[in-house]
Amino acid sequence: MLFVVAAQVEAQAPNPPPVQLEAVEVTGRRGAARLPPERELGPDEIDNLGAYDIGEVIARLSESLALQLPPVVIVNGRQVVDPGVFTRFPPDALVRVEMLPAQAGAMYGGDPSRRVVNIVLQPAFKSGDTQARYSRPTAGGTSSSDVDVRQSQIKDSDTFQVGVQASRTTSLRSDERLGYDRNPPGHDIYSLRPETQVASANISMTGALGDWATSFSANAQRQRGAFIARTSGQVIETRQGADTLTVAGGVSGRSRGWSVRAGLDGLIAEGRQSGLATLASRTQVLSATLSADRPLMTLPAGPALVTADARYVGSRSENSNLPSRRAQSSQILDLRSNLTLPIVAASPDGDGRGELSVNLGGRSSALADTGASGGLNAGFAWTPLGRLRLSGQWAQATEAPTREQRFEPPQYGPPRPVYDFLSQQAVDITPLLGGDPELKAQETQTVSLSASAGPFGDWGVRGNLDFQSMTSSNAIGALPALTPAVEAAFPERIQRDAEGRLIGLDQRPINLARIASHTLSSGLSANIPLGGAADGSMRRGSVQVTVAHIWRLSDEVTIRDGLPALDQLAGDGGAVPRHQLTLRLDGRYARWGLNAVVNWRGASRLRRDLGQDGPDDIRLGDLMTVGARISTTIGAPAVAPSAARPRRLEGIRVELEVENLFDERPEARLGDGRIAPGYGRNAQDPMGRTVRVTLSRRF
Questions:
Q1: Are 207 and 158 in contact (CB under 8 A)?
Q2: How far does CA 421 lie from the centroid of its chain?
Q3: For residue range 485-540, what is the model confidence (pLDDT) as tens digits?
Q4: How far apart are CA 113 and CA 124, in angstroms?
Q5: Three-class SS state of 85
Q6: pLDDT at 16 over 50
Q7: Which residues have CB under 8 Å from 233's CB, separation 6+?
Q8: What share of the chain is helix, strand, coil (3-state, %, to 5)?
Q9: Coil, strand, or helix at residue 548?
């Protein structure tokens, strides 16, 4: 919740003169990072996405590259205490968005396993925005509505934003879906989707105190929900509520040659549940961060950069399950440091060809009640050709469980269908969620190799290929899919009544003996101009085409030492598809916009018996869904064909969106060809095709 904006120039210009920023001379583009971008979105590409805020732009860019972890976000080429404050700003507050090469993770944030996104903001910006949205499945039965109002302002390093949001989703009941195969006539009505109401408000501001930049932010949220569940022959209504307040502050500046950032934030959260169980919780969290970086020495190929990061988190959670009550506390200190060494300088022609660098790092963590842990990492980045970049990372670490994994308050989730191999029936259960205080630290080793190329041609074609291998011992994960082997290994996690009927699952995180996976991700993108001159000037629009593919080469879980590994791709302990594919089209022409997405996942299998296919297995078919959104602006003045297209048209923006355009649903059969119980038309996805209408306007 903290944010510090780097110093900025007074006005935006196509070719600004050199500007002095905290004793660093910037002779290139405004907001440039230490490394040239691997991929860049300019104003046209940003606006084509049809996003409501900067956070959505970053999410879409991450999705196009199939990132496994959320990226580190820097602002105007500089690391900040917490960039989350600015993710609420409208997308036209951006000048550009840059995805930096893989080696940037060691330079910014101290985590080489994460990619880095640089958002470059307008030097001056002011807007008031409001949005109202309503959605409903074409099959009826439930609806969602929400409203968002926010005021944003940027003036050099001074920023201000305030906003309020509210949303409501009505419940979807079993009697509102004809043919629901687990709701025969005469049975009680229960919830397929819960009722929820959320209201929140936020405020943030940044400024300067002498030579130091300052920030403050606060966010409050109130959430309520309810659902009806059947359990042990009873119908029980469960109500849930949560109230959260976060307050944060931070400073950044320079001291003794170091660029320094420090932040302090606190959280207070209260939760309650009544119905299936009477639960109440109160959580208090205080965290402090300190990070710094500086050039360490100058080598023939360039300056060596060292980074140091420290984070302390103290928390206290009090959970009550009347008449018992218990309090738990945790303290974590995490230290990281990285050294980036340039080995070979780039060629003098400016295309980056020949550049080679390596990074070395380490971390140490101390958890008050589980002891110390640590790790090492190393990596390289090489540009053998001007438009070809190669990188690799290796890391090994002992990682303590997070506060949420250990102390998240327990609560029962809404009903969901689970196939029970013992009874060969589908059962709606209410899973137990939350944290597990008994979790132990996990040991993880990761290896990643990446290659990217581009841009090529007038369409700016780019491609990327990424391989990742991960192995975790004593791994923290979720309970695998329910099979006889999983139930035998975790009998305490499976709840059955006196007659042996499945009534509940404990799905809080657990320690598994080992998890190992190998994944190959690839992507291809192009930006096709529409109209205008051949050089792209005065063009009225463009279309971005993005294809992303995930190929799981292996995915194995060992649930207990001495037991054979579960091959989840073959169907042991989970129906995991080997291939996933996403195709996106994002275009805009004059006042019209089109966004379309096609998602496809391959077929998979869930075996009843370990290591062999059988007639009682569940065979899930492949699934392809299509979504489309058309947008236009009503009441906007006409734009002459010869005029440059404005970033944001005046008037009311209207969007019509259809999710799951062809109303596809998951389907499955048993190994012998019979229709699998729990996979009827509305069983796994009772929502189906959903229509959404959005109205937004700037004031």
A1: yes
A2: 33
A3: 999 999 999 999 888 889 889 999 999 999 999 999 999 999 999 876 444 444 57
A4: 34
A5: helix
A6: no
A7: none
A8: 5, 55, 35
A9: strand
What tokens were used for 78? 């500089």
Residues 6+ apart with CB under 8 A from 647: 43, 47, 92
Q: State the Cα–Cα distance between residues 347 and 530, nearest whole angstrom.
A: 35
How do strand 411-412 and strand 502-505 relate by DSSP bridges? Answer: unpaired
C-alpha distances in Å from residue 80, one per residue of 27, 73, 216, 294, 310: 21, 8, 13, 15, 14
Contact 326, 314 (CB under 8 A): no
Tens digits of residue pLDDT in 159-213: 999 999 999 999 999 888 876 544 444 456 888 999 999 999 999 998 888 888 8
CA pseudo-torsion sign 171, 176, 177, 181:
positive
The structure's pTM equals 0.86
Token representation of residue 2: 């903290």
Question: What contacts 24+ positions apart, CB below 8 Å, involve 290-299?
Answer: 290/260, 290/261, 290/262, 291/79, 291/109, 291/110, 291/260, 291/261, 291/262, 292/258, 292/259, 292/260, 292/261, 293/79, 293/107, 293/258, 293/259, 294/257, 294/258, 294/259, 296/339, 299/341, 299/342
Q: What whole-number distance in Å separates Cα of residue 200 and Cα of residue 56?
A: 18
3-state per-residue secondary structure call for 588-649: EECCEEEEEEEEEECCEEECCCCCCCCCCCEEECCEEEEEEEEEEEECCCCCCCCCCCCCCC
Kindly report, residue by residue over 103-124, the tens digit of the pLDDT: 888 888 667 778 899 999 999 9
Q: Side chain identity at 370, as an amino acid letter?
A: T
Integer Cα distance of 639 and 660 in angstroms: 34
Structure tokens at 684: 């796994």
Tokens of 342: 């340039």
Closest CA to 253 of 213, 290, 206: 213
Compute φ and ψ for 488, nearest 5 degrees.
Answer: -65, -35
In the structure encoding, which two tokens stand for residue 264, read together?
A: 């302090």
- Give the residue among 696, 534, 535 at the shortest CA–CA distance from 629: 696
**Type of residue found at 647:** R
> Is the peptide bond preceding residue 455 cis, with omega within 30 degrees of 0?
yes
DSSP result, 100-123: --TTHHHHSSS-TTS-EEEEEE-S
CA distance 499 to 423: 11
Do 126 and 137 meet the contact criterion of CB atoms below 8 Å apart?
no
Q: How many CB atoms lie within 10 A of CB 370?
A: 16
Which candidate, 325, 459, 465, places its Cα nearest to that of 392?
A: 465
- CA-based angle 104:109:113, to the nearest 5? 60
Q: Is the dihedral of CA 73, 78, 81, 84 positive or negative?
A: negative
| Cis bond before residue 323 (omega within 30° of 0) | yes
What the block records as the tokens of 500 is 């042996």
pLDDT above 90 as % of the chain: 55
| Maximum separation of any 2 CA atoms in the chain, in Å | 81
Q: Under a CB-based contact definition with an 8 Å cutoff, are residues 420 and 482 in contact?
A: yes
Reported as a single tens digit per residue, the pLDDT across 421-445 is 998 888 888 899 988 888 888 999 9
Helix (H) or strand (E) holding 406: helix 403-407
Q: What is the mean pLDDT of the chain?
A: 86
Strands (E), 432-460: 432-433, 442-456
CA dist., res. 690 & res. 625, Å (int): 12
Q: 547-574 in b/e burial notation, b at 16+ Cβ within 10 A?
A: bbbbebeebbbbbeeeeebbbbbbbbbb
Tracing tokens 């009477």 back to the chain, one arrives at 278
